[in-house]
Structure formats: C-alpha cells, structure tokens
C-alpha cells in the first residue's frame, strides 16, 4: 500500500507536457513490456474512445480517451510493485523516471489497468485503477486466468477541462509517429507493430509502422553529409547526433527541430526561428520531375545525445538546461537547435539557397527604389535573420538597428583613440574612423535629400486643382511646409520643411506656426521665425533676424479688395511693430529679443493674379522681380524687407536649389 498525496502531486506537474503526453507514455510502456518479454512479434493496439454527439463536418464525436493494448510481459509482481512506487527506478536503464504514469491523471479522470501475467507455468489476471487520494493502486483484483498469453490493456478516459485537439484517426496517428519516431527508426532495436483504430470499429485500423520505409511513405529520412556536432561547456565536450526527415502531406506547415531524450521527443520548435527560409512548406516533383504528381513536405530535425538524456525533466516536457545561451550554465537549448537547423539546411540544399537569393533580391529592390541612402550599409549587413519574405518595415528596422550599432561602435572607438597615449597607432586609426564617419554621414545626407524630393512632389500635387474643381486651402499647403497650431516647442527641429522657403530657416531656434504669440486667442501669423545668433555680418556683429510668412489659398485674391480685413502686407507690418514694442512672448514665456537694428523679413505667398499684381504695383508700391513671379519692397522705418511670392515660384526655386542633389542620386 502506498501513501502518496496523488492529487497534490498531479497539481504540481510542471508545464511542458500536453494532452498527448499520457498516450505517448502508455505506448512507450507497452514497447518496454514487449522488450522485457523478448519477443519478435510484438503488437501494440491503440483504440480511440469517443463520447458526445458527432459533428456535422467530420461525422465524428470528440475523443474522450484511449485504450492501449500490448502483448508484453504483463503486470508481474515486480512490475506491479514498481507501478505502486513513486519515482521507481525499475526502468532507469531505459531512461525511466518512475513518474510518467501520473501525467495520465493530469489530463484524464480515469486510469484503469487490466493485465495477464505469468508466474512460472501459471497465468494470472490483475486489474486495478489509479487512485486519486493516498494510494496509487486501488480496487486491485488478482485471479487465476484461463488465458495463455500475457499482455496488458490500459484505459485512460474522462478527458479533463479541455477538448482533445484532434478528431481524425489519421491526425492522431501522425502525431504519435512524430513523437515516437526515434523508436521507429532505431537500427539497434526492432519497433513492435503499432496499430491505431476506433474502439467501436476494431476491424479498421492504421499501421503506424507504414508511415516509414515503404514506397510513397509519408516520412522519409534524408541523407546528411555530417550528422554530428560537438558543443563544449565548462571545458567538457558533449556530442550530438542529428537525423533529418521529410514529412509529406504535413499536418502542420512548419518545419521543426526536435530534441529527443531516451528515444522520446521532448521539445519541438520551428526551424524558421534559426533559419527563416524554413517558414514555408517545400515541394517535391513526382516521377520524371512531373510537377502535377509532386508532394508538399516539411522537414523535421531530431537531435539525440547523452546530454539530452541526462538533463530531461521528470515530466519529459522540458530540459533542465537554459533555453538561451548562458556561459555560466552550460550548453543551452538554442545552441543545440541552431546546430541542428544548420544540418537540416545542408540536407534540404538548393531550395534554401534559392529562397535566400530571392530574399536578397527583395532587399536589394527595396534599397534601390525606396532607401538609396542605405546602399553602402546594405552591402555590409547580414540579413539572414530577416523573415523569408521581409516587408519594407522589416528591412528598414533591421538597417536602422545596424546603423545605430555601427554609430555606437564608432563613438566607442573615437573615445578609446582620444585616450590613447601611443602616437604611432593614431594615424592609421584616425583614417579608418574618418572613413566610417564619412560613410554614415553620406547615408544620412542621401536619406535627407530623398525625403526632400518626396516633399516637393507632394507639394506640387497640392497646388493642382482637385477632383471637385477647386484648389486646396491655404491650410493644406501650409501643413506641408509646417503643421499648423505648432511651434518648435512641440515639434522636433527636423519636423518641418521650412527649407522650401529659405535654406537659412533650417537653423531657426524658435518657430511658431499659425499660433498666437502672446495669448491663447491673440493675433497670429502663419509662420514666425526667430533665428539663433549664428549669422555674422560686417564686423562680426551678431544679428537676430525675424521672419514672418503669410499664406493665401491658391487662386484666392479677395484680400486685395479695398474693404478686406485680411491685407497680408498690412498684417506683417503690424506684427513687426508689435514685436518691436515687446508685446509678444513665446507660448512658454520666453522673451523675443529684439533691438533697434534687428532686421525683419516678411513673405506673402499667394497666386499672382492680375488683380493682385495691380494691387501690389499701384497700392502697395512693390517692385516686380525679374522673373515676374514675385514682388519686393523695403520698409526702411521698420527695417523690414518684404517679398510677395507666387506658389509657383516657391516650388520652382525649391526644386532648382535641390535639383543637383536629385540628379546625383538619380531621382530627378
């Protein structure tokens, strides 16, 4: 009689197992019982128990459990006592943990055993249930048997909490074969004949052994040139063996790497985690390369080794070593799987190479057409980790990450060089570092110029008449140059396109766009710019130019009417006077510093209709520019220089200033 808190023990079973684990355990126990008997005609029969109503699609009820029958040695006294002992060591030489049977009660409510065993020349029947309280064996009965053949039938039923994930006999068969494939391909031991069938239809069954080794088999081993590798941890070398299989008509479209302990699959992870080109199924043509008679397949790489046998967990759902690389804790799971993935890649051969070539072409097309500023960097970066079919975002994020890593490396090298006290080594290292810095700067410049081309194309489109026959409002074109209701306290200094108006405006220290300068509802200009004291003139005396812009909707000219209250020229003059009088601060309370010599620049951007030209010439006393696309005037008393520019001139001048850069990049 045992004295074990079975319920508590089951509750403490760790993750890593799943609902197939009990079935696999029962099949392995059956194989071991046949091995113990020492017969060549071993037979294991798996029967599926169903309950509930049939569904309308498969005409199948849900799976509620299984009966696993074998013609092995049966539950002899020693086998019975071992079953009744927690952590029994009876099967330790075959990798037994003395615990697997408890996973049955984790997923099923009932475990019932019926067995015939021999004691000398006599046969006996033994039956019992697994207990759920203090005893492992309950309701045990032993009687003389009329049978003359030993064997065992174990039923697990009454599935707990969740449905069994699969219904079809063929699907369940495939899972069991994949989980126990090492038994089927073991060259040192013959695997018993294993058949799975419906409990209510015992005449129809599927032989699991037929999945391998026959013509048109669904599982075929692949030839590998080098199927072993060695990893070292703590100065101790561990050897591993890899066997690679093609799985035709796969139930899952994922190629996987499986780690095996004592001939049982413990973990399986997608190969694409290590080599992205395993992300999709493969296709093998039929006889005479007939594509119409071909078959889809995935690859499964099985890894064997004493290191795995020695480190498998009690429940066989995981290993006791680290998942990721850890120098302090020995060989990791990811290290093993990475090596196995490389061997699988060598086995599959040319198709992986072709998939990598297509990925490289995809990356090259993106860089060439969408991101030419990355051309130099792209030649240095390893893209192996990217998905098989990377998106533009995947490629860009990868390049940005590598660019950042390269910049950090360069900065570290510069810092180390500055601390160096060896003058002999500085010359060559300086040249190398300057080349690195130069390449980074070049890539940034290419990116910046390309973005300018996009902005100008967008701006040109915004000046066209829309589908409704109307021009965009001044607000729409305003937002392209700089977003409304924003200032440089809200936006990064690069988040505007003021270079379209004047390249010098890129260096502005304060910019306000369509935002009151003194109070929430006060007067506001379209754009007001206050420059840093960085421009020197004459005797290197600092100046603080302030630039004010006013935008008017394309083709709009009613502001030139005598009764208009939106005279942009008068508005700019008024703003200049108010700023000179010190009436304005920035929204954060900073002073706008001016003095008697502070120059002001005013710009009005509009379409120069005949009405506007007449207004500028005869009412505002402006002078036309030589190209006919703008007018100018000097307001001496205000130190204000003002231009009225057409939208066409604004676009044309910006394109002209940047044309040489576009041409050099081949994007003109």
From TrEMBL:
SUPFAM superfamilies named among the record's database cross-references: ATPase domain of HSP90 chaperone/DNA topoisomerase II/histidine kinase (SSF55874)
Gene Ontology MF, one: ATP binding
Domain of life: Bacteria
UniProt entry keywords in alphabetical sequence: ATP-binding, Nucleotide-binding
Name the record gives this protein: ATP-binding protein
């Amino acid at each position: 009689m045992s004295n074990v808190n079975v319920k508590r023990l089951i509750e403490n079973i760790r993750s890593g197992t799943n609902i197939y684990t009990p079935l696999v355990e029962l099949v392995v126990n059956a194989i071991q019982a046949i091995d113990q008997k020492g017969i060549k005609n071993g037979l294991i029969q798996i029967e599926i128990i169903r309950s509930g109503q049939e569904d309308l699609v498969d005409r199948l009820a849900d799976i509620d459990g299984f009966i696993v029958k074998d013609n092995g040695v049966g539950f002899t006294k020693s086998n019975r006592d071992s079953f009744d002992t927690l952590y029994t060591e009876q099967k330790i030489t075959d990798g037994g943990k003395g615990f697997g049977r408890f996973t049955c009660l984790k997923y099923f409510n009932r475990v019932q055993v019926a067995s015939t065993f021999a004691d000398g020349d006599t046969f006996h029947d033994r039956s019992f249930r697994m207990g759920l309280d203090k005893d492992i064996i309950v309701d045990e009965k032993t009687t003389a048997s009329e049978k003359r053949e030993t064997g065992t039938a174990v039923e697990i039923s009454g599935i707990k909490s969740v449905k069994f994930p699969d219904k079809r006999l063929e699907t369940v068969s495939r899972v069991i074969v994949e989980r126990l494939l090492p038994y089927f391909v073991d060259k040192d031991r013959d695997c018993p004949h294993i058949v799975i069938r419906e409990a209510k239809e015992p005449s129809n069954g599927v032989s699991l052994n037929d999945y391998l080794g026959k013509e048109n088999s669904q599982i075929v081993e692949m030839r590998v040139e080098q199927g072993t590798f060695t990893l070292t941890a703590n100065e101790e070398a561990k050897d591993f063996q890899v066997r690679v299989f093609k799985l035709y008509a796969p139930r899952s479209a994922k190629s996987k790497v499986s780690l095996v302990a004592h001939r049982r699959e413990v973990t399986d992870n997608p190969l694409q985690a290590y080599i992205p080109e395993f992300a999709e199924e493969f296709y093998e043509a039929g006889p005479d390369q007939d594509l119409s008679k071909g078959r889809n397949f995935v690859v499964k790489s099985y890894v064997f080794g004493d290191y795995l046998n020695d480190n498998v967990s009690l429940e066989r759902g995981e290993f006791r070593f680290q998942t990721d690389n850890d120098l302090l804790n020995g060989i990791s799971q990811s290290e093993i799987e990475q090596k196995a993935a490389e061997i699988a890649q060598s086995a599959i051969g040319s198709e992986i190479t072709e998939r990598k070539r297509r990925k490289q072409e995809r990356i090259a097309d993106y860089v060439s057409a969408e991101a030419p500023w990355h051309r130099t960097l792209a030649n240095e970066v390893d893209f192996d980790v990217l998905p098989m079919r990377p998106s533009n975002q995947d490629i860009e994020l990868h390049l940005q990450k590598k660019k950042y890593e390269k910049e950090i490396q360069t900065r570290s090298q510069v810092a180390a060089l500055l601390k160096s006290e060896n003058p002999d080594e500085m010359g060559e290292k300086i040249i190398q570092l300057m080349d690195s810095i130069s390449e980074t700067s070049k890539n940034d410049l290419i990116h910046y110029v390309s973005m300018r081309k996009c902005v100008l194309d967008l701006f040109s489109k915004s000046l066209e008449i829309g589908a409704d026959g109307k021009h965009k409002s001044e607000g729409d074109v305003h937002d392209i140059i700089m977003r409304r209701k924003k200032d440089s306290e809200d936006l990064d200094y690069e988040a505007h396109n003021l270079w379209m108006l004047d390249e010098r405006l890129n260096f502005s220290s304060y910019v306000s766009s369509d935002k009151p300068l003194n109070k929430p509802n006060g007067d506001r200009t379209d754009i007001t710019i206050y420059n840093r004291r960085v421009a020197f003139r004459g005797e290197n005396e600092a100046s603080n130019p302030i630039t004010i812009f006013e935008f008017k909707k394309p083709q709009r000219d009613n502001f030139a009417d005598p009764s208009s209250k939106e005279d942009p020229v008068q508005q700019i003059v008024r703003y200049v006077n108010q700023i000179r009088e010190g009436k304005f601060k920035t929204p954060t309370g900073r002073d706008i510093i001016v003095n008697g010599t502070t120059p002001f620049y005013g710009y009005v951007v509009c379409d120069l209709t005949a009405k506007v030209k007449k207004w500028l010439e005869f009412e505002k006393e402006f002078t036309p520019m030589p190209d006919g696309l703008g007018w100018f005037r000097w307001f001496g008393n205000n130190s204000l220089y003002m231009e009225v520019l057409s939208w066409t001139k604004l676009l044309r001048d910006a394109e002209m200033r940047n044309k040489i850069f576009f041409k050099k990049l081949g994007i003109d």
